[in-house]
Every structure is written in structure tokens, then in C-alpha cells.
């Protein structure tokens, strides 16, 4: 299922995006407002020139927005399904590439306007008063198990004690959906999806509220559930009684399982009957003194298979 695209679409909604940052970073205080957000572009690919050669680095953010609050900032979301033991390094690389992208834009503007005044500014293409936009990234973790991966750069770097005072630490911020029932969020859609995911993970389907078809599709992406994705596809537009729908789906799954079991039982019966017939042919021909080649021709088998079958049968009878 294409859960990644659905997650990007959901968190790409400015009201959802703002609520996530206000909840995770600002403990519910309304600091980031939807109308302050604009698309920043998720493609961080760039070329690095070193010693006359060019290295292309292709990286893409999951959701990336510019925030025009009291200061300019670039906010990003990374969707994560499993623990990744190099995640602080990866997010740090994303940040570095975005800072490089900003620097290049500033440099290109100065080159066009020819407004740099000192030789130092001219050489680096960056004015003394120029500033880059700060970045802040939230990693959303969808796994069922608690996040035990690294949360800061020192978790994956061996730092000698003597160098610790000089080590540049870098940390990431992980929000685990499995630890939230959504009650700390303000946006009603975010609250609803997180609550449903929380209850489903705990098998409490009677606690589920009715969901719209699109909400079920989003919930399927949150839980990476093929069953829920199928439910969203089957139902018409409008509210879906999740408790009843899931019970029906479970019952249907059980019926299909029983049918597959019956079919497998019939297939096994036919195979067992064919094996018994073959065993009788081989046994009778051998008793009459016919060679194994005769049985092989009658059954359409390789002679080695006939010999193996006959030896196995004689051991079973003894």
C-alpha cells in the first residue's frame, strides 16, 4: 500500500502541520499558525564540487514548510516506520543541504545585484549581515515498539572523554504515535486519527468513533494496514461505523480462511489418493517381477522417482 504518500498528504495540510509543532515543541501553546506556513520545496538535491570533480547528492524531505513567524524558519517532518540507527546523522545531512541551498540562493542574488562591498564578502558570496533560516525537524515514528534508536549524534559516535567539551552535539526530536491518544492535540482531525490508531493498536475496537472514508484511508497509512486500506476502498463515501465494519471484515477474513482451508484439504485429499494409486501400481508390478522402468512408463515418472517411492513404501510396510 502507498502509505508514505498518504502520510505526506495528511501532514502536508497546514493545520495538521502547525498542530504537530505546537504540541511537540511548544507543549500546546499556539506559536505556529497555518496561515504563517508556505511550501518550502522538499528536494534538497545538490552538486558538490571538490578538487575539480562534481558529486551529486540527492535527498528529499517528507514534508517541508517555511514559517513566517517572528523570524523565518524552515520546518520539516520525517516519517519513520522502523528504528534507524543513523537517523541523527541523516537529519543533520538534510539540515546541512538545506543551509547550503539557502546559501547558494543568497550568493546567486548577490552575483546578480553586484552589491557585495568587501573582498571577504565577494569571495564567499555572502554578506556580513546575511542570515540563513533556522531549521527544526520532527521525526514521526509509527512503529508499535518504543523508539530505542539514537536521539542525538553522540549516541552513534565514539567521543573520547577528553573531547566531550568540544564535541558539537546534534539531537533529533521523535514523536511516537503509539504513545499518544491524541488528547494533547487541538486539531480535531489529528486528534481523531491518533485516537483511532491508539485504540486499534490496543485491540479496543469498541472505543472507535465513526470515521469518514478518507479518514479510514489515513488511519490505514498510520498503521500500515492493508486490511484498513481495503475497508476504505470497499465503502461508499460518508461515515463508517468502525466497530461494525471491522467485525464484518474479521468475520469475512475468517470465512475466507475456512474456505481456503477446505480447498487445501480437498487438494491434499486428491494428492494423497494419487499417491496411494501410484504406490499400488509400483507394488503390484514389482510383485509380478516387472522392472521399475515399466512402472515409470505407466505413471509417466522418472525411474529414479519410482525406485525411491518403492523403497520408501517397503520401509513403511515393514
What can you tell me about this protein's structure?
- The chain is α/β, with parallel strands linked by helices.
- The chain is built from ten helices and nine strands.
- The protein has helices at residues 3-12, 14-24, 87-113, 119-124, 188-201, 213-223, 226-234, 242-287, 292-299, 303-317, and strands spanning 37-39, 46-50, 53-57, 63-68, 72-80, 134-141, 173-176, 211-212, 239-240.
- The strands form three sheets. Strands 1-4-5-6-7 form a five-stranded mixed beta sheet, with helices on both faces.
- Helices cover 49% and strands 14% of the residues.
- Helix 6 (213-223) runs antiparallel to helix 7 and helix 8 packs antiparallel against helix 9 (292-299).
- Strand 4 (63-68) and strand 5 form a beta hairpin.
